[in-house]
Amino acid sequence: MISKLRLLLDRFTLILVAVVAAATLLPAHGVGAVFFKNLTTAAIALLFFLHGAKLSREAIIAGATHWRLHGVIFIWTFVIFPLIGWALRPVLVPLLGEHLYVGVMYLCVLPGTVQSAIAFTSIGRGNVPAAVCAASASSIIGIVVTPLLLQLLLETDTSALDSSSLLQSIVHIGEQIFLPFVAGHLMRPLVGRWMDGHRTLVRAVDQSSILLVVYTAFSESVIAGLWNQVDPLSLGLLVVTCCVLLAIVLVLNTWSTRKLGFSRADEVTIVFCGSKKSMATGVPMAGVLFSAGAIGPVLLPLMIFHQIQLMVCAVLAQNYQRHAPPEPGHRHAHEKGRLPA
Q1: All domains in the chain, ordered by first residue
Q2: Is the CA virtual torsion 76, 77, 83, 85 positive or negative?
Q3: Pure H helices in 224-323
Q4: DSSP annotation of 180
Q5: Helices first, then strands: H and E counts in the chain
Q6: Of 307, 313, 303, residue with least CA distance to 274
Q7: Which pLDDT tens digit goes with each residue over 155-210?
Q8: How far is Cα 283 from Cα 177, in angstroms, rounded to an integer?
Q9: C-beta atoms surrounding 152 within 10 Å
């Protein structure tokens, strides 16, 4: 019972809710807003520097050769998932309103997660090297593909997007995300061993960066009238929408993977890498692509979907683990593994 409750109310989720409440009651403005904006820029650079430094060159080589698996994950992440969101537009716009639909569409075009996708693949005894490669590649590719897909699928409904050109947005994202990521990976020979020995500290910095970005983004949105745009009913309907969206993706993903004849280990990898969306990439990227008034409604679907995907995938990973064939000498290797937050 306690373990199930921890899945529903993990510490990071509670802190995230508290940060949104703080931004609602005490939004940063004036000099404070400038300070937090500059601090957020530095936090984003540090966040992706750590992502790059954690990526092993050996893992890339080991996983990159499985082109068929990576192709399927790419199609799910950047083709099928966005098309599902686009196809649901006639239902979601009347249900949620235009602002929240833009947020749902933004969620659909984001790259997949890195840490949790790999962790769940490991718990479910999937192809971990391939998961490392696929999840990392998704984050890098998303820097360019996500803005392009958003522009394409929103068509003329891009009033929420910032007035800067798409090319400028991609360049800005590259400066904030890609360059620190590359720098971190190049520095791995120097800092990799230290990071491996201080995983708890690295994880704390990782999550703190996300919380800081969320506070800054929601402060701007609250000042711009976020909660006048999103009422409690719309919020409830958004939760249901995120649940339905994840259910559609998981069911179709699992079914198609089995029809294509992948092994059980590859199925686990495709399910977890092809169905999850990254808040670590999505939150800072939204700050580049969207205006201050639009960023709050844009981030709400991502924050809700993020927690739902963690809860559902935690249960799914444990189910894969229970039905996995026994590994010699590792009968209980994963039973005490900690689920990611």
Answers
A1: 10-20+28-319 (1.20.1530.20)
A2: positive
A3: 226-229, 232-259, 264-275, 279-289, 292-322
A4: H
A5: 19, 0
A6: 313
A7: 644 444 544 555 666 676 677 767 887 888 888 888 878 877 777 777 777 677 76
A8: 11
A9: 12
Residues facing residue 290 across a β-bridge: 161
Task: Provide the CB-side half-sphere exposure for 25 (13 A, CA).
Answer: 5
pLDDT 10s digits, 99-128: 899 999 999 999 998 777 877 888 888 887
Q: Is the separation of the CB atoms in 245 and 104 below 8 Å? A: yes
Helix ranges (DSSP H) in 187-231 = 188-197, 199-223, 226-229
The pLDDT, as a whole number, for residue 63 is: 56
Average pLDDT, the chain: 79
Question: Over the range 71-110, which residues count as b (16 or more CB within 10 Å of their CB) and which as e?
Answer: ebbbebbbebbbeebbebbeebeeebbebbbbbbbbbbbb
Distance CA 192, CA 235 (A): 42
Query: Long-range contact list for 10-15, CB < 8 A, 24+ apart?
Result: 10/310, 10/341, 11/341, 12/207, 12/341, 13/307, 13/310, 13/341, 15/207, 15/211
* Residue type for position 301: P
What's the gap between Cα 290 and its chain centre?
17
User: Token pair 């506070």 is at which residue?
Assistant: 215
DSSP-assigned beta bridge partners for residue 161: 290
- 334: pLDDT strictly greater than 80: no
